[in-house]
Amino acid sequence: MATGNLIAITDFCVYYNIEYTFINSLQEAGLVQIKTVNETTYIPETELQKLERMIHLHHDLEINIAGIEAITHLLERVEQMQENVRGLRNRLRLYEDE
């Protein structure tokens, strides 16, 4: 498997000065996905923004894994609600234009 869009967890941990166990805990909580290729663990590029936000919550705001899980769940719900509002506005425009 190609590792072009994957970042080695060891490199990521060194760059952000975090422990591997933190990422492992996030993965066990279902908050991030980790891929293993040839016995090396990687983070997909698509997970970076989400993972950086979680690192910020943990280090800067001192929020634990359970708190990060709750915040992530709430943010996902807000995004879903915003999508619903956008869809409803678009539907309403159809009726307003008639």
Description:
The chain is mainly α and 98 residues long. The protein has one domain: Multidrug-efflux Transporter Regulator, Chain: A, Domain 2. Helix content is 62%, strand content 11%. It has helices at 9-16, 20-28, 48-59, 65-96; strands at residues 6-8, 35-37, 40-44. The chain has a 3-stranded antiparallel β-sheet. It is elongated. The termini are far apart. The mean pLDDT is 92.
Give the end-to-end Cα distance, rounded to a whole number of Å. Answer: 53 Å
Sheet with most strands: strand arrangement: 1-3-2
What Rg do the Cα atoms give? 18 Å
Query: What's the mean pLDDT score?
Result: 92
Largest sheet: 3 strands, antiparallel
CATH topology: Multidrug-efflux Transporter Regulator, Chain: A, Domain 2
Low-confidence stretches: none
Assign an overall shape: elongated
Compute the number of helices.
4
Total strands: the figure is: 3
Assembly state here? single chain
Features:
mainly alpha; 98 residues; Multidrug-efflux Transporter Regulator, Chain: A, Domain 2; 3 strands; three-stranded antiparallel sheet; 62% helix; elongated
List the helices and strands and how they pair.
Layout: E1 6-8, H1 9-16, H2 20-28, E2 35-37, E3 40-44, H3 48-59, H4 65-96
Antiparallel strand pairs: 1-3, 2-3
Give me a quick take on this structure:
With 98 residues, the protein is mainly alpha-helical. 62% of the residues lie in helices and 11% in strands.
